[in-house]
Amino acid sequence: FNMRKNVGNGDRFLRIILGVIVLIFGLSDSLDGMFKWIALALGLILVITSSMQFCPLYVIFRMNTCKVKGKKK
Description:
The structure is a single chain. Helix content is about 60%, strand content about 0%. The chain is mainly α. The relative contact order is 0.25.
């Protein structure tokens, strides 16, 4: 299992923002039961994948939003 970076900076920023928003909804009283746990799990996954710069789903779908730096001469 290869854990090379596959989450770019724009993607990371979006994941952090969405993850925090979803976590706030999960921790608030606006959601109950199963939806609360799904929101908490989704928010946590978004924040973790952003901090690790790695998304396992991107590997499955052969996606990569991380820019490749050119070689120096």
